[in-house]
User: Fold these one by one.
Assistant:
Number 1:
Amino acid sequence: MKRTIFALLTAGLLALPVWIAQTPTRAEASVCAQTHLVQRGENLYRLAQRYNTSVGTLQLLNGISNPSRIFVGQSLCVRQANPDDTPVGGTRYIVQSGDRLSRIAQRFGVDMAVLARVNNITNPSRIYTGQVLTIPDATIQ
């Protein structure tokens, strides 16, 4: 009897991580418009202030139950994509390793200040790999 209970408990516990790994988070179920790579000393409260959102929203977007438990190198969704986010005639671009905002603007023939404004970027030197940028067309500038 004890072995049967132990076997059932063990099987249930072993299956639990598989179930958790297969359950999509809120951010995975939706499209993330902007991500942030967590740096040393950052927390959800400061990130919420920086991206003009709330700690609760960041928790929901990233499936975080404890707002005190984020780690350096973690990629967080800080803004959910909305079909209305892309201006008429605009396109999306995913920031690649080594990209600079000035080079992206030059590549697409847009003004860097306009590109920064459209994407709510306050510091043009701080873009992140995986970040989704909206590239406005020339008529929006």
Number 2:
Amino acid sequence: MANPLDFTGKVVLVTGSSRGIGAEMIKAFGAHDAQCVVNYVADAQGQNKTDAMNLANELIEPLVIECDVTQPQQVETMMKLIQDRHGGLDILINNSGIIGDRTIKKMSIDEFESVIRVNLTGTFIVTQKAAAILRSGGRIINMSSVSGQMGLFGQANYSSSKAGIIALTKVSAREFARQNITVNAIAPGFIDVGMSKGVPEETIQSFIKQIPLGRLGDVSEIVSAALFLASPMASYITGHVLNVNGGFYMG
């Protein structure tokens, strides 16, 4: 029996893959012989580029692309670069995201819209522009969050963006089905990596008490979900939200 996690010949793009969950995802696909595309957005300190180049050193002949997912022209250029190098795209993981917590009473319109712009609009733009180069039998995996299902305190912007991603996933699943492309979402709970690192310890402990499995998730558990959804094992799954949260949300 063929190894369902053999991604030889498959081209994988993970947006926002210079660090955190995105970086771990692209490394995992590389370890399973995929052709990897690393994406990062430029920042004033140049840290994202540094992280992306360090990550590239762990991969075999990766394509590293600077691209702001909120800018349609930049995204078009990214897709053209992928097309020119690899002839198409097989797996798209919309991972780019930001967070900016504040209560509704204190949140400015800009603070609300900036998170929506990156998380939700960015996912839409990349999906739309990738449509032209995604091959039949391809996969789109969108990163949602338990916050988009439960509406966590202080996350009006983030929760709204992640709930929107769930709706976008379902619409995309219907529209891309005619190309034999599945579209699913992963909704992580509290994961011991990336954004969760900035949360106060007392807050973390409070959440752990509400998680039936009694611990934070490990990034490898999110990566495994992505590998599964991208594999032939998930060929008849589309429009689904895969909760990886230790039982925190069971809706």
